[in-house]
Design goal:
Order of helices and strands: HHHHH
Bound molecules: heme C
CATH class: Mainly Alpha
Shape: elongated
Distance between the termini: 42 Å
Number of helices: 5
Structural class: mainly alpha
Length: about 90
Amino acid sequence: MKKRDIFLLLGALALIIILWMAPEETTQPVPKDDIHLKFYDIVKNDGKKAAEKFCEDCHNDDNIPFSEDHPSKFRCLFCHKVKFDD
Ligand code: HEC
Ligand code: HEC
């Protein structure tokens, strides 16, 4: 393998890692408070899709509106992680 190929490979690898890490580091996880803790149980027992159904009961334009620059609201838990490990 040529030196150039190795650098190219490392560059691609770095990019993948950065893309992989970025959303999780910048997007707030689902809070671990009295309101949200029950969703941790739902995710554990029935999966993310079951838990997500409830988010928009509160997170909607009438109750807790999203910020203007909030991205697509499809599938909350793809972006807002439930963090079991801390
Ligand atoms: C019973 C109402 C209610 C439901 C249901 C609810 N939330 Fe919330 N959520 C709140 C309130 C109130 C806040 C602001 C206070 C707080 O941080 O707890 C909040 C805050 C948040 C935040 C912001 C945290 C931060 O650091 O700014 C996120 C992310 C969030 N909720 C995600 C979710 C997701 C995902 C679901 C569905 C699994 C969900 N919420 C369901 C009431 C609710
Ligand atoms: C595509 C990824 C993505 C999805 C899907 C998503 N969010 Fe977010 N959410 C974000 C990001 C990124 C922010 C931070 C935006 C900012 O700083 O303005 C955020 C911020 C929030 C906040 C803090 C207040 C605000 O509006 O900035 C709440 C609450 C929240 N999201 C709830 C939800 C709920 C509930 C759902 C599902 C209905 C959801 N999000 C789906 C990426 C996502």
